[in-house]
Amino acid sequence: MRRSEVLADESIVCLQKALTHLREIWGLIGIPEEQRLQRTEVVKKHIKEDKEITVLQLEKDLRTQVELMRKQKKERKQELKLLQEQDQELREILCMPPCDVDSTSVPTLEELNLFRQRVATLRETKESRHEQFVNIKRQIILCMEELEHTPDTSFERDVVCEDESAFCLSLENIATLQKLLKQLEVKKSQNEAECEGLRAQIRELWDRLQIPEEEREPVAAIMTGSKTKIRNALKLEVDRLEELKMQNIKQVIETIRVELAQFWDQCFYSQEQRQAFAPYYSEDYTENLLHLHDVEVIRLRNYYEAHKELFEGVQKWEESWKLFLEFERKASDPSRFTNRGGNLLKEEKERAKLQKTLPKLEEELKARIEHWEQENSTAFVVNGQKFMEYVTEQWELHRLEKERAKQERQLKNKRQTETEMLYGSAPRTPSKRPGQTPNKCGKVRKMNTTTMSTATPNSSIRPVFGGSVYRSPMSRLPPSGSKSVVTSLCSGKKTPRAARLRANKENLDLNGSILSARTVKGFQI
Known about the structure:
Elements: H1 3-28, H2 33-47, H3 55-93, H4 109-147, H5 154-160, H6 171-209, H7 213-216, H8 228-247, H9 249-266, H10 271-275, H11 287-306, H12 308-331, H13 343-376, E1 381-382, E2 385-386, H14 387-423, E3 447-451, E4 460-461, E5 470-471, H15 497-504, E6 514-517
Antiparallel strand pairs: 1-2, 3-6, 4-5
Helix pairs in contact: 1-3, 3-4, 4-6, 6-8, 6-9, 9-11, 12-13
């Protein structure tokens, strides 16, 4: 065989080996079938190039590609190893199971990208849980300090004493942390509530026993906080005051009765409701009587707090109603027109405003009370009766009072009219003149000419509106029919006929049976 043929056969064998080796590399680095076909086509084109290329050059090119692929394989496997280490570390911190990855094969670019995303997600989870852990740990330490609590379990010691980086940030541990914090907060709240209750008892006993301020000041240090030593000090102070209360039981009961009376007023208790608590009127100051008063004042306090909103609404109505009645009283007072400071106009504006707001307030209270009565299945009582009945009664009493006042004014005017018709208007004091005796009765009003029955001497005139029969003040007429002398109606003294006629400008014409005089307030005789 010729050497050229031998060389050609060797070249073909080398080419086949090179292609086989390329396929192995493609398989190791995970090149899919489609890319293998493409790469094979590229090799084929290189072999079939129009340009003449020697087998040695082809071999060199193939070796260059092989070296490049080997370098890519090494880099991918190094990155995969680094990602695996990071993934394992994060999973240990988060207490998650390890991820099973084939480290012998060369990962594809897509597989490496997915691995990177998974590691980034684990890192974000770790940061979030660590921040949550640090926040909860800080609150737990504060609660333990406030409660003076020493960690007594391994988990509590791990939380408080161990290094933060060594704590396992699993979901279970985070949930356990939250549970522990909640337990501590509940206990802290209970202690605070207990301390506040003890302080309320102390203040109440101070007030009931009338403890002076200088004796209260030393206790001010324990009136805040809820630590164990403070709670114990509060209990001791309550015990001391309770003992003092029993030594001054009468004074305490009297103080409670004042408080009871205040609650009765705030709850609008009727007299019957107040009398229903018989111990209030007992004078047998015993421990049992004190207990009954304590129970009753607690019941009333709870009752008021439960209905405080309604009672405040009723109180607002009561205040508005009193103001309304005051405006009504001022409106009927004639002296209000002598006002010079502008208060009259201001009062009228407030009165008009109140007349609008008062019915609106009543409607609002009515709706709220009806809703409350439906929820509680009982009547809302004010001064022993339903509120709306109470409001209606107040309006009716106001109407009757106005009617009574009106009738009194009419009766007063009627009596004044009768008096003026009989005796003339109210007397006026004329100016004094030298040598004259002043006429104290004032002018006698003229009367319109009115036809009457024939007058007889000393005849009587009956008042228009009834009443007693009065003798006529006129003297007996003389037979000649001349004018008679008229006597004074108020002083009882006689004045000269001519002077009286000039002073009063009266003209009594008794010729025949005609009597002339001025009409008094629109009424004629």
